[in-house]
């Protein structure tokens, strides 16, 4: 997995930016707010999340780690894929999403194109216990952030490969004991183990 990209901004488009890294131009899908902070020719470092499909690998770039983690977390809710997750972050910042979920604010979530009332209610129900209270991001322990990150990456990889959210949840739970024995979670290895678990099932 590619955790971040650092390089010269080669191009900035309406929905993506190209960063030159070691002579290679990497295209990152970004929200308008993130794109607004980039200027062609400048150096930039963007946290990234890779979405794996059978026929493509897509990199999403973010302004900071909080935005990246929120992008990965909201995708653990049923019916939320990478495009809808990015749309949520284009309309609402991570703190606004935490406030909306924590206060059962359906109206705010339905301001996001693609989210209706039932979808907003489902997101609130599924994320309420995991998203954290508003203002809680800075209070998280480093170890907790690392755990959440590998779980989100493995879960996102499985969903990207066609498994359902519930199947991905089961597989992440199954490989958690293995992850706990690692000094630093190896996302690629854990993803392979999760796939093996699902294949056996």
From TrEMBL:
Residues 72-91, 107-126 form the Helix-hairpin-helix DNA-binding motif class domain. It is found in: Cytoplasm. It comes from Nocardioides marmoriginsengisoli. GO terms for cellular component: cytoplasm; Holliday junction helicase complex; Holliday junction resolvase complex. Gene3D superfamilies: 5' to 3' exonuclease, C-terminal subdomain, DNA helicase RuvA subunit, C-terminal domain, Nucleic acid-binding proteins. The RuvA-RuvB-RuvC complex processes Holliday junction (HJ) DNA during genetic recombination and DNA repair, while the RuvA-RuvB complex plays an important role in the rescue of blocked DNA replication forks via replication fork reversal (RFR). RuvA specifically binds to HJ cruciform DNA, conferring on it an open structure. The RuvB hexamer acts as an ATP-dependent pump, pulling dsDNA into and through the RuvAB complex. HJ branch migration allows RuvC to scan DNA until it finds its consensus sequence, where it cleaves and resolves the cruciform DNA. GO terms for molecular function: ATP binding; four-way junction DNA binding; four-way junction helicase activity. One of its GO terms (biological process) is DNA repair. The keyword Nucleus does not apply. CDD domains: UBA_RuvA_C. Residues 146-201 are annotated as: Domain III. Coiled coil: none annotated. Signal peptide: none annotated. Belongs to the RuvA family. Its main location: cytoplasm. Has three domains with a flexible linker between the domains II and III and assumes an 'L' shape. Domain III is highly mobile and contacts RuvB. Keywords: Cytoplasm, DNA damage, DNA recombination, DNA repair, DNA-binding. Homotetramer. Forms an RuvA(8)-RuvB(12)-Holliday junction (HJ) complex. HJ DNA is sandwiched between 2 RuvA tetramers; dsDNA enters through RuvA and exits via RuvB. An RuvB hexamer assembles on each DNA strand where it exits the tetramer. Each RuvB hexamer is contacted by two RuvA subunits (via domain III) on 2 adjacent RuvB subunits; this complex drives branch migration. In the full resolvosome a probable DNA-RuvA(4)-RuvB(12)-RuvC(2) complex forms which resolves the HJ. This is Holliday junction branch migration complex subunit RuvA.
């Amino acid at each position: 997995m590619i955790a971040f990209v650092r390089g010269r901004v080669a191009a900035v488009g309406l929905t993506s930016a190209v960063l030159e890294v070691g002579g290679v131009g990497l295209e990152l899908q970004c929200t308008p707010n993130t794109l607004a902070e980039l200027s062609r020719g400048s150096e930039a470092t963007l946290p990234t999340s890779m979405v794996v499909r059978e026929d493509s690998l897509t990199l999403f770039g973010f302004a900071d780690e909080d935005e990246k983690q929120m992008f990965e977390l909201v995708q653990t809710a049923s019916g939320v894929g990478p495009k809808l997750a990015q749309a949520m972050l284009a309309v609402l910042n991570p703190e606004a999403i935490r406030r909306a979920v924590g206060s059962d604010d359906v109206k705010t979530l339905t301001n996001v194109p693609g989210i209706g009332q039932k979808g907003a209610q489902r997101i609130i129900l599924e994320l309420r216990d995991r998203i954290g209270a508003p203002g809680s991001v800075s209070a998280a322990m480093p170890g907790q952030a690392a755990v959440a990150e590998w779980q989100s990456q493995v879960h996102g990889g499985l969903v990207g490969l066609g498994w359902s959210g519930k199947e991905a949840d089961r597989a992440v739970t199954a490989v958690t004991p293995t992850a706990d024995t690692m000094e630093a979670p190896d996302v690629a290895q854990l993803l392979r183990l999760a796939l093996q678990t699902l294949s056996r099932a």
